[in-house]
Amino acid sequence: MRYVVTLFWAILLSNTAVFIISAVDGVEYNAMIATGFGVIITIFVALLDVMNQDMGISDVAQEK
């Protein structure tokens, strides 16, 4: 479920960023490129999560 939320926010924020950058530069807005960036960001975040689990970083004891 957390990856679905990550995908949603990555697509939303990347589309917003690409829209603003294209407006400032005066070029045509391309939603497919912006959505592709969102998918790439989600894959990158998922890979970072897997790497953290492999390294045992997520298993650190909680301080009480």
What structural category characterises the helix and strand content? mainly alpha
Indicate the low-confidence ranges by residue numbers: none
Query: Count the helices. How many?
Result: 2
Helix fraction by DSSP (H/I, runs of at least 4): over 70%
β-strand amount: under 5%
Q: Could you give the order of the helices and strands?
A: HH
The quaternary structure here is single chain
Number of strands: 0
Head-to-tail CA distance between termini: 28 Å
Compute the CA-based radius of gyration: 16 Å
Shape: elongated
How do the helices and strands line up, and which of them pair or pack?
Layout: H1 2-25, H2 31-55
Helix pairs in contact: 1-2
What does it look like?
There is one protein chain. The chain is 77% helix and 0% strand. It has 64 residues and is mostly helical. Helix 1 (2-25) packs across helix 2. It is elongated, with a radius of gyration of 16 Å.
Note the main attributes of this structure.
64 residues, mainly alpha
Condensed summary:
This protein is mainly alpha-helical and 64 residues long. The chain contains 2 helices and no strands. The protein has helices at residues 2-25, 31-55.
